[in-house]
Design brief:
Shape of chain A: elongated
CATH class of the largest domain in chain A: Alpha Beta
Helix content of chain A: 25-40%
Number of strands of chain B: 0
Order of helices and strands of chain B: HHHHHHHH
Number of helices of chain B: 8
Strand order of the largest sheet of chain A: 5-8-9-10
Shape of chain B: globular
Largest sheet of chain B: none
CATH topology of the largest domain in chain A: Alpha-Beta Plaits
Oligomer: heterodimer
Structural class of chain A: alpha+beta
Largest interface: A-B, 23 and 23 residues
Number of strands of chain A: 10
Strand content of chain B: under 5%
Radius of gyration of chain B: 18 Å
Amino acid sequence: MDWSLVWKAVISLAGFGILLGAILAVASRRFHVETDPKVAEILDALPGSNCGACGLPGCEAAAEAVARGDAPVNVCRAGGPDVTLAVGRIMGLEVEAGVAQVAHIHCRGGRSLSPPVAFYQGVSSCRAAHMLGGGKACPFGCLGLQDCADVCPVSAIAFDEEGISRVNVRRCTGCGLCADVCPRDLIEMVPSTARVFVRCRSQYTGKKATAVCKVACIGCRRCEKACPADAIHVQDGFASIDYEKCTNCGDCAAVCPTDSIQVWVGREGHPEGGEFVVPEKKKRPRKEGGGREKPEAREEAPPREGGEPS
Amino acid sequence: MNEAWRYFLLFFGASLVANILLIRFIALCPFFGVSTSLETSLGMSISVIFVMTMATSVSWIAWNYVLKPLGVGEFLYIPSFILIIASLVQFVEMVIKKTSPPLYRAMGIYLPLITTNCAVLAAATESVKPGFFTKLNVPYHYGFPEALVYTIGVAAGFSLVLILFAAMRERLELAPIPKFFRGVPIAFITAALFSLAFMGFAGMFNL
């Protein structure tokens, strides 16, 4: 065996290593750039998904802007109150934390509930389809062409077999990009503590609403009367909940005749963090006074499996 | 064959006939990863041209003045080149960061990506151990100018294809494509057709 070759190999490779290491060590001194240590700290505190919801190109740019004082400490919508507190601590500011937000989609009328009246074959985008009417019977419903899922930086929005988008609350960071992009304004950013949702934004009322979608809000105002906290009101033909007042009692869902108001029940093992259920209906909504305890939930009628992003 | 014509052939061959992306299928990761928008692919192209030229120059010197005289080059060239190229890119990144912040902002994010990009390593290796072009009438051993011309050819071919492909993918985004082919699958199919078209260049050389 030729040992000289081994020695030459070891020496040449080690030589390269030592030489290059020395050059890099000298260079890192020589070409050292002074950076604000706050930038690195803030960058650590930010979520790092580079979603761009703050309007800056990525988390690093946001960290630099905050350190320079060009952006407020609550620059990160996606990070929620925890990140705002952490960034505020780094910048030495007292920060009042708000409540984290998640996206909620105000439509559950899928293909079988609101059948298409025309076949849309244009550019595959809700914003394009909306300009032409979309082809869906309900002119206010979810078009299902996935603009919100495309824009979501954390893949929290998936579409079920009915063509309706669903939010995975475990992944949703509350950045609000989907709410900005939806041409039908169906996505609302709600506090993560909210449990009761109106799942329709149809401006039609009564028979006109149910003619285009079986689960539409018909504007009957029974929820308004059932609400003990004056939190739900019918406006423009659909009910909407004021989450500042809502106590999550679910009384409105119990009286809704079309099941368009539903209660979100968090489930530990569920892939989306929970699911919508319809509380047991009260036969005579105004006979008994109480009803503040959460009504017993039963499984919703249509199957709601699957739903991982395709 | 005169000198200028030989350099031209070398450049032409390296960039189009043996295009690193479409004929040799090296560096497909940045090809699909960065080609989603024209802007990023332009930045990547400029960085690749820059890094590849520097990497090959240094590797050529290391091969001809250290590895080959010691007789260890045959089995040590890959680890040495990886070491050299990685350190070089780090060094260049530091220098740019200090001397030219605007250039760093334009190129900086791509530099760590191409630290040991397979295309960079392939160009460095090929310039000292020409395998693909031994059939052409170029000497087996490249001199320094030839190695440089060869590398710039490879990088130019990479950039050309990357930019053309990015332009195509921007159009594909809005095309009515069946659901299961959207995104990367249709990009692969497009790249395959693109590659077929580039095979036409092979006939231009009289080997």
